[in-house]
Amino acid sequence: MKDLMKRIWKPGFGLLLLAAPVWVACDDDDDKDNGLWGDANITQAATTRYPGAQITEIERIPQGYEIQMWINNGEAEMYIDGNYQWLYTEFEDIAWASLPVAVTDAFTNAGNTFNPYEDDVDRIEYPNGNTTAEYYRIELDREPADIVLLYNPDGSTYQGNGAGTPSGGIVTPGGELDDTIRKTITEAVNTRYPDAILTEIDREPNGYEAQLHINGAEADMHFDTNAQWLYTEFEDILWTSLPAAVTTAFTNAGNTFNAYEDDVDRIEYPNGDTVAEYYRIELDREPVDIILSYDPDGTPRT
Question: What is the residue range of 244's domain?
Answer without folding.
Answer: 237-294
